[in-house]
Amino acid sequence: MNNRPIGFFDSGLGGLTCIPHLMKALPEEKIIYFGDTARTPYGSKAVSTIKSFSIEIADFLVKQDVKMIVIACNTVSATSLEDLRHRFPQIPIIGIIEPAAVKTAAVSDNYNKIGIIGTKVTIKSEIYEKQIKKLNPEQKIFSAACPAFVPLIEEGIIDNDIMNMTIKYYLDDFINNNTIDTLVLGCTHYPLIRKNIEKIYPDLKIIDPSEIVIPTIVEQLELNNLIADVPNYENMFYASDLSENFMNMIDRIFENSGLKVKFKSFDL
Ligand code: DGL
After folding, report:
1. Computed over its alpha carbons, how large is the radius of gyration of the chain?
2. Of these residues, 68, 73, 192, 207, which one is catalytic?
3. What's the CATH number where 123 sits?
4. Among 13, 8, 40, CA closest to 147
5. Is the shortest distance between the CB of 191 and ligand 1 below 6 Å?
């Protein structure tokens, strides 16, 4: 048993989409979240920049005495997971992509047409394709970078025509020309526009890595004897730029959850 917090991080507020799923599975766990809102988006930056930002954040979380780090960001998982594990060998570090790739391969067959959407860096890495094809080399996979989604979501531009037109701009031809039936939300910001996507493409099956990563977290906590057994009364949310949007989005994501949150701005 271990009552130290679990550290989650993302380039911004996207990784918050994992938290309600974790709270449902393990309500006693205490969470420390870091959103690098001052430097978001990561998905169009150089890999070397993303690596150095993620080391700074992991360093910060380790100093907060976390018992595990969850990289709640596909872009960082695609580029920096191995480096982080190498640098912080004393702590379990979970990436978000592998569990989602395993699940995608498990729930699809050769007749399915899988679409992966994500940031430029995640899509360029081809990490989803490589990991899914390791499990099923015949799987048909298509991918598309959607770089405008993250800035719009960070601005809170979600429930309106601007977002719906942007979704159609990126996805109409991609889905229709490739007859995609299964869509992987390969960026943790995208669950925030899941309802828009479902409304525009009602027949698509959606795979959400922000949710799929949870059983892996539970399994690793159990394996390392790190499950908390004392009720958690407070979670802590840090942002490098504590903007109004970040706090509004926390309200939106945790609405009705009864979660008690504390915010703090933290300059790395
Ligand atoms: N939420 C992130 C991801 O899952 C990063 C988005 C970005 O900063 O570009 O890839």
Report:
1. 18
2. 73
3. 3.40.50.1860
4. 40
5. no
